[in-house]
Batch of 2 targets.
Target 1
Amino acid sequence: MEKTDIHIIGLGNLGSAFLEGLMTSNKEHSIKVYELDTSVLEVYEKKYPENDYFNSFDEFKSGVLILCVKPQSINEIFVQIKDKIHEGVLICSPVAGLDIDHIEKSISNKIIRIMPNLLIRNNKGFIPYSKNYENDYLDFIQSTLNHLGRTKEFSEQYFPVITALSGSGPAWFFLLSNELINAGNKLGLSNQESEILVNEIIKGLPELISDDVTYPDLISKVKSPKGTTEAGLNSLKNDSFDTIILNAIEKATQRSIELSKELKSE
Ligand SMILES: NC(=O)c1ccc[n+]([C@@H]2O[C@H](COP(=O)([O-])OP(=O)(O)OC[C@H]3O[C@@H](n4cnc5c(N)ncnc54)[C@H](OP(=O)(O)O)[C@@H]3O)[C@@H](O)[C@H]2O)c1
């Protein structure tokens, strides 16, 4: 089987998650990684010597180019790479706020916009995508993205809220877990004891979740009338937990929309 070139620019949080996730793929990839920080390159060069590592750009002749750099760096990267990308190369962008029509101003290639989260590192991600071409060019969705997690096509107009819910999603659960640990700690447990309790819940929860069970159903299985869970849930309701969450997701969505405007006005 012919190997597909996968070029990953940026080996930060998401780029390294892509790399780790792809290393367990059965698909024959030829992975080329581009990162400015040579100490980071050295770590991965030792770990996965079968890949190619660079700290500058040459021609991108074929395959898929995955842009794992911060939104603030992307316009500068386009200036550096746009004349080096051959027309058959598929551009894959997870960059928050970067609209397909903005990329099209610099590069006239096929483009897939995705919004994964860090769970792709363990091939447990969910990858919403939107694209400017028909079918599955280079079999990228079927053979590569589907290996990193579940995929689903969305209209691009929903990317700001998708970014807030899914891209940033792990952070909401990490914050909630941290606050639960702090609460246990304040109410007498050691930090370590509180952490074990919360971590074990988090690890076990996936077993309970499935596509045909709703969260209200799951909550009703935990609470009993006039019991401890109900007391806590009522307190959350009185403190407008729903409004707190809605505000946070609205702020994150708004930031994504602002980022998009900032990128277009640079
Ligand atoms: N993290 C997430 O969970 C997540 C989820 C969805 C989408 N995203 C998107 O993914 C992108 C990357 O996010 P991140 O969290 O991975 O950021 P990050 O940790 O800052 O990683 C970006 C990496 O790109 C490197 N880089 C910058 N300019 C470069 C260049 N010219 N050539 C090669 N490498 C270069 C940076 O190196 P230096 O540090 O040396 O500059 C850094 O290692 C962002 O656009 C973000 O919106 C992230």
Note: The first strand starts at residue 4 and ends at 9.
Target 2
Amino acid sequence: MNEALMRAVAVLSTLVLLGLGYPASTVTWHDNRVPAGRMMAGALMLDLEIARGTWYPNGERRAGTNVLAFRERGHGLTTPGPLVRVRLGTRISVSIANTSTDTVTVHGLGSRQGAAVFDSLLVLPGVTVTTSFVADAEGTFFYWGARPGTRLMSRGFDDALLSGALIVDPAQGPIPEDRILMIDVLEELVPSASGPVPSPGTLAINGRPWPLTERLEATVGDSIRWRVINRSSRSHPMHLHGFYFRVDAAGDWQRDTVFDARQQRMAVTEGLAVGSTLDLVWSPDRPGGWLFHCHLSFHAMMNPPVGDDWKGYDAFFARAFRDLGNADAANHVEHHMAGLILVTNVVPKAGEAYPALRPVAR
Ligand SMILES: [Cu+2]
């Protein structure tokens, strides 16, 4: 290699290291259980960063897609973004450093009272902004980033994963154990004869589509509490198999309404509009593998291949529809039964017996 070429390679490598090329970082999923940040003198200090990385919704052996994502400084990029969880009345001081080359507007890191709820932060490339606010309303919320001028309803592409949960617990008293489930839809721009068009959506819960979604565990008689957050650009009628659930609260990324006993309703399906949230409680009275899923069939079917694996709509439809009606258990990730599906494995209480289920007549 001659000297000029070596110098060019060195300069190029430096540019890549500086983040001017796509960094090779992976966007990993997490289960929304460990809050980010650190408490100092009663306040939460949180350093967020925005960067580009590769999300592998179909598993790391398949191609991934390049997206914008959040990370807590010193940690890896994640989807969902870092969990912010504090008690009511806690001051939250946040810095957001944008290490990407995209300008991003961040919504939802602010007071839930008055006009402040509509505030947003403009975070230019290479710039760090700071904000400080008091968590002044209890409930289930989220923060989200997007290109300037983008509404949640139209945020579907490489900024679709820029968001994290913001949970405000009561000021005092015990905090019941719960799980936070965030719903995603991400599209890619793919080539077509008439120019770039959106790909079919990749659908995921806490960063993973079925069959990679987390396997939840419970015991008969448990009270299972979920905070379901639809941070996606689509609506989802979310349905639970086998049991009714009680709706304890409903809201969106800005406001939440906690229901009193007269307002609570029992349901098996609740529609989650774009940006909405739902607190639900259910209790299984028998063992089994119980699904919670979107009731739109095309949100629980095959997820598309992404990145270099995408081979066009014809190939996608041929594969998606060829396998309908054929339970291809060996390869769910590429065929139907995918996307917004989660299962809870309910085991018997120790020492209790349950009548065997009758086999289904065929
Ligand atoms: Cu759906």
Note: Helices lie at 3-17, 313-322.
